[in-house]
Amino acid sequence: MVVSVDAIRPVLDHVVVNVMGKLGEAAEQYTKLGFQLTERGHHTLGSSNNLAIFRDNYLELLGYLPGRETKRADLWTHPAGLTGLVFKSPDANLVYAALTERGVPVLEPISFARPVQLPGGAQDARFKVIRVSGEQVQNGRTFFCHHDTPELVYRPEWQLHRNGVTDVVEFVIASRDPARTASLYERMFGAPLLKPVSGGVSFTAGAATVLVLKPEAVAERYVGAALADPTGSDRMVALTFKVTSLDQPRAVFDAAKIAYRPFERGIVVDHAQAANVALGFTA
């Protein structure tokens, strides 16, 4: 079957922060940072999460409960921090066929669910994911997520945050060879995709821009707030969020005594205060 790569587009669905067995600690950190988190959810595959839902995408704090670390053990081999770049899927089978046609190593779609507690009772949020094979991505995962029940995720009452965040607008990967790292995404979505930027390359993914930058370019862009991997491996290290006004995150951080510093696009919080992820905020 011939499926055109034009059938799939790079649109950010969500980002995954791997917090392993520290879900409670990470949820407390992100709540102090002004995010409204959903109630703790539990996947049928064995992992657990809290979400911060935005207008067009969301952030997932992913981990496990005590005694469940052997469930989804493949996830916990990645270092704690930003480990998931997830794109929207228009159709799981179509995405699988398109990636296969492009020669991208990809696993067959899998289905799972997560009960969601609502005022009228619990309902199951259902998903299908299409995962690029693990060896293609260092220290993390890239996959597509198809929402069978988007109304159980993108709920208006969950999209309001004290820090004023409306969307993830930047996702940053540190790589000593940005062209090599980013070539996977051009294979996934077709050329021309990548644009040269200072210190690396970028591509547009819906409301967000994905940047693959040399470590020194990351350090300069995020004024030293991002994690530096001592091994020299690729590492997903930073996010930037759109806010309605920088006054909102400043007020939240000042009240919580969270240090922040200016950077080119607004203000940034150090990775040590956000589960190993540098968080930028821009108006």
Automatic annotation (TrEMBL):
It comes from the Bacteria. This is Glyoxalase-like domain-containing protein. PANTHER family: BLL2707 PROTEIN, GLYOXALASE-LIKE DOMAIN-CONTAINING PROTEIN. The lineage of its organism: Bacteria, Pseudomonadati, Pseudomonadota, Alphaproteobacteria, Hyphomicrobiales. It holds the Pfam family Glyoxalase_3. Residues 12-188 form the Glyoxalase-like domain.
